[in-house]
Amino acid sequence: MELGFLSPIFDRPGPWASVYFDTSWTTEDAAARHELAAREVHDLLKSQGADERTRKAVYDALLALPRSSASPGRALFATAGEVVLDPALARAPSGGPHATWGPLPHTTPLLELMDTAPTCLLARIDRTGADLELRGSFGRREAGQIQGEDWPLHRTPNADWSERRFQNSVENTWEHNAALIAESLRTRQAETGAEVLVLAGDTRECHAVHDRLAPEFRGTAIIAEHGVRAPGRNAAAGEEKLEKEVEAARASYAHRRIAEAMERFQAGRVPTDDGRVGAAEGVPALVDAAREHRISALLVRPDGPDLHREVWVGDEPDQVAVRRTDMQYLGETRPVSARADDALLRSAVATGAEVISVGPLAEEPGTPEGLPVGGLGALLRWPYGGPPAEGSTGGSAPS
Fold it and tell me: Please, which residues have CB within 8 angstroms of residue 41's CB and are 6 or more apart in sequence?
């Protein structure tokens, strides 16, 4: 999951109010329930020591949230009397509103409550071009249009010599437009960072475009069975089915990516002949990796007991230690205690590491139980531990 949007709350000192709030009420008493839940959040934050200005800012922001079954929830992160970030949630928090007050924003619940599936580039194709749309955690938005040649496009039934030449010209136009669409999709994919491609519309042209895609993109592309470039009034059923195909493609890709990460993690846990490993687990090893910016991907199992473990942190994301006394060596004279998951997630985002929730694989057949141990693990940017490899500066082994 890409969590770069959290940078504004990681770039500011705390303490922070972190709130997860249900906005899906649509019953007659929805307004009253909404106000009671906002008051509950206010009182929870007060009981944890939150200042009055921040409590009021959160309370006012919660009251102003719209209620809709299409928008099931919202997270709020506030400090110093200001709501700094309020991302939408794909799922409402269970058991009523959640509110915490602590030195770091409590962001781990986002891994379960937000839409974590990858961004999809949807191309509605016909023989003249394509209309593009992005689908992701932000919803949907237009992503441009590809316009090919518009003549000649239609074959005729006549079979004389001149008509055969015309038929060939039509075929050439189709082929040219398919190549143009494929190349344009490669460019748009690079610009948008979309990881999944769905081709919908004219079946022949979709297959022609798919055959011309770059190999690295072709493997993440599917041809939808439904949808057209310019849907008419009676195309609602087809659009609903296309919507399901798009979401299924996003979910399938996310599942494969998690499975691949877990395979790499399991392989990386096994030391090489020189004692080096490509993965880490357990809070002490992860804290060392975070300090040295060695985390490539942070793996989080939401039910893991280590998520709640205490670590010590400073103002900077790499100022994190298992023991308070270690913080003086990191240049922090006034460390504070924080949850391990919040500290490691802050560090991962600050260093551009990926964050992956491995919870969705917990029920899959053949998935090893309890990995990563304690619920927190990491794929490392380079093998670590053991004696330094020849020509390498090496490094000390994790404590």
Answer: 19, 21, 58, 59, 62, 97, 99
Task: Tell me how many degrees the CA angle 266-268-270 measures, rounded to the nearest 5.
Answer: 85
Main-chain dihedrals φ then ψ at residue 75, nearest 5 degrees: -105, 145
To the nearest 10°, report the CA torsion of 57, 63, 68, 69. 80
Beta pairing class for 376-384 and 277-281: antiparallel
Residues 206-257 have pLDDT tens digits of 999 999 998 888 888 999 999 887 765 556 678 889 999 999 999 899 888 8
For the whole model, what pTM was predicted? Answer: 0.82
> What residue has token string 């309370």?
59
Please choose, from the candidates 278, 356, 343, 271, the residue with its C-alpha nearest in 3D space to the C-alpha of residue 306. Answer: 343
Q: Rounded to whole angstroms, what are the CA distances from 270 to 40, 171, 193, 285?
A: 48, 55, 33, 15
Across the beta sheet with 336-339, the strand order is 320-321, 310-313, 336-339
What three-state secondary structure class fits 360? Answer: helix
Q: Say how far apart CA 356 and CA 266 lie, in whole Å.
A: 15
pLDDT at residue 239 in the model:
85
Cβ atoms within 10 A of the Cβ of 86, count? 17
CB proximity list for 141: less than 8 A, separation 6 or greater: 133, 134
Q: How far apart are CA 229 and CA 132, in angstroms?
A: 10
State the angle between helix axes of 283-291 and 340-350 in degrees (0 to 180), rounded to the nearest 10. Answer: 30
- CA dist 20 and 12 (Å) reads 20
* Residues 56-108: tens digit of each pLDDT: 999 999 999 988 767 799 999 999 999 999 999 999 999 889 999 999 999 99
175 vs 264: CA distance, rounded Å: 40
Bond into 109 cis (ω within 30)? no
